[in-house]
Amino acid sequence: MSTELCLERSLFGGAITSAFPQRFQDASNIRQVPDHQEVFVDPSRDESLIFELLDFKSDVGDNGSASWFLQDLAREQDAEAFKLVEQSQVIEAPGISFRNIPAVVTSAVGEMAISKGRQGREAQNLVRVYVANLRLKGVETDVLVTAYEPILINPLSESANAVGSGLAVPASQSGVLPMCDVIKHAVSTFRVNDWSLFGSSA
After folding, report:
1. What structural domains and CATH numbers belong to the chain?
2. H/E/C letters for each residue in the chain?
3. Name one Pfam family in it (predicted).
4. Tens digits of per-residue pLDDT, 107-154?
């Protein structure tokens, strides 16, 4: 059982806060991160947690929106062997509402084979990807929270240099919170402190 400490972090200049384990480092200290993203990584386990603000996709229904975004991620990353493992029902998030319009949340879990950075298909890792989609309709924004957890590391992948190749060490053996719980905690503690982040609609 993990006793890992989750700390509240400031996202997007403090306009949003969310809590997740301390072991995740801000990737913007290491590399360029787009303005609409906040990226946190644990290099020792090759795990990452990403918060992303997107224009609201009005043509995507609430039911299954997270699985739509998950499949979109798979296409974007040129993934192979994509498999949707599970998806949730739509739930309201009364703690996140703008002008009495509560956010709705869906989630999905998938598995896919993807390469790191500019590496080719021969270096693909098998990864489990968790996606939560918080739909902030009052400010016409889709928030994506995405967690990446390696299942099998390819010896040709640059990840193998940091964590070794083969089956990834389960979180339970390392005494850390598994990614399925990391993303649940990040979503359940997600708060908007400054709605002006979303521009004129706020």
Report:
1. 6-192 (3.40.1000.10)
2. CCCCCEEEEEEHHHCEEEEEECCCEEHHHCCCCCCCEEEEEECCCCEEEEEEEEECCCCCCCCCHHHHHHHHHHHHCCCEEEEEEEECCCEEEEEEEECCEEEEEEEEEEEEEECCCCCCHHHCEEEEEEEEEEEEHHHCEEEEEEEEEEEEECCCCCHHHHHCCEECCCHHHHCCCCHHHHHHHHHHCCEECCHHHHHHHC
3. Mog1
4. 999 999 877 767 667 767 788 999 999 999 999 999 999 999 988 766
